[in-house]
Amino acid sequence: MQYLSTKWLFTALVAVGLLGLTACDQTIDKAPEQSVPPDQVFANIPGAEGALTAAYDGLQQNGMYGGFPVIAADFTADVTNFTGSFRTWNNAENFNVTPTHGPTVNLWADHYDTINRANLVIDNAAEVPNISQSKVDDLVGQAKFIRALTYFNLVRWFGQPFEPGAENNQPAVILQTEAVESTEPEFNKPRASVGEVYAQIRADLEDAVSRLDVKGARKRAGQGSANALLAKVSLYQGRWQEAADRAQSVINQDAFSLSAPAVPYQNESSSEIVFAVSFSSIDNTGVNAFPSSFYLPSPLGGRGDANPLAGFLTDAEDGDIRASLGEFNGDALLYELEGEVWTNKWTESTLGDDAPVLRVAEMYLIRAEALARLGNESEALDLVNAIRTRAGLSEVSGLTGQELIDEIIRQRRYELAFEGDRRHDLQRLGRPINSGAATAEPGNNQRILPIPQRAIDVNDALTEENQNPGY
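The structure corresponding to this sequence follows.
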């Protein structure tokens, strides 16, 4: 996971050196003795493919899909309760984060490390000797998907929500679209606007769609995963017709289909999964920040620090498989052990669960919400009922307007629980974010994270005035 081979160590050091993302001295500008410069890495096709694998490995870090962001997006919202002893996680749950907050610093650092790994592929793939254009397209398309996904996460954590029809000049994060191999001062950059970051995400995904093969491989981006992410990005931007169309293009692919709710977590090759970050027990040797570690009770090999909030259970409809108690690794998505309730979405005691990022069920809900907002309430209701019936619920009828929207958002809460989505949903909708321990109402500064202090201290283009308000 966060342990890089020496072959790829230079990418992490490069990203850290540029953006000042660790507590180390910023004078780290000397190539490590065991690093490999890009011209050697991209000297042949296997080297380029290895660089792309390193970019995917970046997604595994504990500041990405291997830890805090996945869990925190639910325990700082109305899904999960955090009962562990990590003070910094308790601070997050209580909306009491500072610019030196460790998990926030790691989130920022690991995302920019991954971006730089993707940039290295994008910048160098076409220069590989004897490489075909189709191979260049495959490498660059996948790397641009990774970069887009990473920036989509960053802009949601550190920037105010996108406002459809507005200028969206509110500050977001640093846009770095070229690979960095030194720490010279000219690489200092200011924060880009929310609008600029979303424009870059869209450009990357549109280019990825044009380059990638239709099929993909669930753990490697294909045209379907790029369209799925673009559907979600469009939803956040209020581009309803495009969100509906992109989601439908994924639903139409033969490789993807709805499954029973528990299947994607029991079968990591399920047709329900559009894209997931791959993990194995080897990736997580010695790691205790992985979601399985927190969501598994101690008798089953985990820490047992995170389980469903009482309100998540009481708010659920009777019979909802996603909020019903069953057997460990059974058909229901919850089970009980030693008087506590746990999720069946994270069950590997070896910490080898894949992290789902995009699923077919969400495509149904994205299309449903987009159509409802466009006034096509009949089809929107059909899509909602498809999700309800697979969850063991009866169909609903007669819902229109805000009632229909609320039902769709309710289904998102239960469908995407324990997958790191809920806080971002509440934020984009402008609704209160209630963690069970505290509430961040609309306008509360803690609804977005602070730019890490270290990133400000070592970047000449940033000052304290560029920090998010309230920090």
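Strands lie at 80-82, 273-277, 306-308, 325-326, 334-337, 340-343, 355-359, 433-434, 439-440.
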